[in-house]
Amino acid sequence: MQVFLCDDEPEIISVLTERVRKILPESKAYGFTDGISLLKALQKKGCDILLLDIDMPEMSGLDVAKCLGELRVKPFLIFVTSHDELVYDSFHYHPFGFIRKSHLEEELEKVLKDCCLEMANQEKHFYFHTASADLRLDLQEILYFEADGNYLKVFTKETCYRFRETLMSVENALSVDGFVRVHKGFLINQAAVRMIGQGDVELINGSHVPFGRMYLESAKKRLKRYLVYC
User: Fold this and answer.
1) Domain spanning 125-229, CATH architecture
2) Residues of the chain with CATH 3.40.50.2300
3) Which of 28, 182, 219, 230 is the most exposed place for a label (fewest CB within 10 A)?
4) Which residues of the chain have pLDDT under 50?
């Protein structure tokens, strides 16, 4: 888990970083003292949780929050402030929580743990953005993903959605939840498999997804193991 912290006061960054590492010992915490450098890092590699000061010179935390919608994956946003009156201005950006600098000791641990709990709950869903809407699918609804140029198609029993993402990125996110790469252009939900053929997989809706030579052996082994022990 990666946690980004942004505050124009270096001493606050130091305190927050130390406490985050104690509360979430397996996390990696990175500090930034201005919004511009923070946004560059977010665009490059992203983070899971963002602790963001509201009142900063040049580019405020609210200015940064406006830009988060442009990210492919938005972090859980937690505003940190010493100005309680600014909290109401931040509601528009739908933050996960708020921390008062005067109450760091009491509030930081609870907000971070609540955040981790929410992330764990969300792991059983897949969130994505199409040209017309933000969508959430239960993982059990998804049959498979198919690469389509710079886009992906996600298929359920009832419909198909198209959104901009790479198949590798989705594979990395969902592999632990039973999604198996069977072809350079296909990622399937092992729970949706009805039959494993010589050259393809038949899914519960009757669809056939081909094996790719590069993935044939490893994909068949993993899918057979699931069918035997599920």
Assistant:
1) Beta Barrel (2.40)
2) 2-122
3) 230
4) none
